[in-house]
Amino acid sequence: MPRYQRLTKKAEALIAAVYLSGTNTRRVKRALFGLFEGAVSKDVVSRAWRKVKVDWDAWSMRDLAEEDIVRLILDGTVIKTRLDRKATSISVLAAIGVRRDGQKVLISIKNMGGESTAAWSQFLTDLDARGLRRPEFVIVDGAPGLEAALVALWGEDLPFQRCTVHKHRMRRLRPIDFRLAPRGAGQS
């Protein structure tokens, strides 16, 4: 470790992760006291978060033109985090790319306030502006806003399908009531 440095990059990342999970700076200090032998003050937590934020911002704006992405997995989810010193739930949109060799890579994850067509359009337009080429195939979560945004950006001929996990969840949430369905419904 360089002279005058008290924490490694992994330690700083751990502190920032605990803070992001919704724990305030004083609780982070208490939670990690034993692990770091008391070296974690409120200011250390804030400094660690600022360092991680700089790296995060650079990663979020990186050029995607050199990425050989052939498949794209797009999903929206709700996570609990800490924003403006308050624990809260936010809706984030995520893009995972699959390279030609099969390797998966996180392309982007952003707080867009929901899964509307406007949110997905802005998210996808950012990927396009950063150089991401049109993928050969897209896997989606089934949000109507996402499908409309995909068609608007890359055209109606872009092949996409709903994720099988989301299909199964929808079947569990919306079972067909065969007693009320017309005779022969659901039979193939």
From TrEMBL:
InterPro entries: Transposase_mutator. GO terms for molecular function: DNA binding; transposase activity. GO terms for biological process: DNA transposition. Keywords: DNA recombination, DNA-binding, Transposable element, Transposition. Pfam families: Transposase_mut. Belongs to the transposase mutator family. Required for the transposition of the insertion element. This is Mutator family transposase. The lineage of its organism: Bacteria, Pseudomonadati, Pseudomonadota, Alphaproteobacteria, Rhodobacterales.
